[in-house]
């Protein structure tokens, strides 16, 4: 691989940098503190795309990388409070970039490296970032991903960007632009000591973009002290993390799970954390468990979508590998169905490891509802998030805003008291923050999720109450997709609905009314929309189904009746409910028939 990251460490000399602990700032808590006690303890294990090529980074080495990177950022003109966009796959320099921003008081905005150039450009512009950090190329599932090219495309639309710091993940040279700075080369010139900036506990630490039910993705703002405290505590207590454990969260650093449980929680606890660059099926469906055996992972934390996928490949791929190191199995990002839960518990964990189904969100900063196996005798039921974490007070509300006090009841999940890890605002749009989370149920934080409280008082999540869908654990606002579809020349109007998908949890299903004489058919439009949405958002957002219809079901006042469409795509056309406000019953019949034809056509392919 290109310029070896390791060469940087051989320059030596971080020892002198860990002296300043005034205020016990964020980076000191994640690095310097541990360097004093155990400099040679492994902080990161970079599990690269090809199995067996893992790279270990100690706390001393990570501090040094962070300091050199921090000094590079400063020399390039990055100042306290500036936003820095990071578009990198999981790798030590991505973690060092996040920590370096924190160290100099800059605000990082990591963008998942699967997002398209347009999505990246939107996020760079919204954050007003002048700096982007990326890699020349990514490697995932044996494929090369041209990340720098995507950045170049994005930056063409972002005149405010002044510099692109490029790390060499592969040997391949990529065309350079006038903005490019070779990251490793610059880091080598810098001092291995960078004093941590003293920050206020409520200063911004990072922005992370996530989809909402309306408009463009919003940059949620997390602050320093509360976020870190919540990350560290939840990591310790939910996973029963002990000193010397190897923590394996396979999420990408581009999502909140990667921020809190790949990077900040484990590092604040002085732990050893795995950075997983690959996919669950590369080079074969045994990849996770082979990694568990080789790295001796103690806590494994992943998404139900991957569990459902692996379950289909059968037990042999699991049993082939020694999983005796495992102590806790975690699930995150979407509801875990009973079958997947049972397989995870019985086959992967050999009934030895408690499964923690953890409910939380980008907004909550860390896990809010989850079983806690560190609590001896704690009951755990399949597919249930069970109990609130310390300091979290969940409340169920009905549509009239009444608090539901009884058990055995469903309602909107709200949180009635502030907690340390909660997002503080939406970047540059506090009004939207208040409107989205605090106005729907005055006095409560509204999560957007529905929940059922069992007769024993346990919590079971029942899915989103708004127009956010969850594809393979990735959030997507249906409004974002509709916005793109409605701009297509052939489209008069559209509605995007989530439908149940066996592996992905949900998929996107698009209903389209064509403009008169558009010349398009359902087939030609499907291919174009799939490409367009991949290009404008990301591949995961591309719809599997596009159904062309003459009309959309509307109320007499002209509002699209989404709940009717939702029932149809869930194959529950016999349960459409109250249709008294529906303006055109025939349109619904036609849609039901069109849906059957489309789905059956697919099945017979
Ligand atoms: C959903 C991911 C059921 C939920 C950490 C939430 C879940 C959204 C669970 C947040 C779970 C997350 N059971 N649903 N254990 N965990 N969700 O912001 O709808 O990417 O609101 O954060 O995922 O997604 P986000």
Automatic annotation (TrEMBL):
One Pfam family from the record: AMP-binding_C
Record's keyword annotation contains Transport: no
Catalysed reactions, as listed in the record: acetate + ATP + CoA = acetyl-CoA + AMP + diphosphate
Gene3D superfamilies documented for this protein: 3.30.300.30, N-terminal domain of ligase-like (3.40.50.12780)
Keywords, ordered alphabetically: ATP-binding, Ligase, Lipid metabolism, Nucleotide-binding
Transmembrane segments: none
Top-level EC class: ligase
One Gene Ontology biological process: lipid metabolic process
PANTHER family from the UniProt entry: ACETYL-COENZYME A SYNTHETASE
Protein name (database record): Acetyl-coenzyme A synthetase
Organism: Accipiter nisus (Eurasian sparrowhawk)
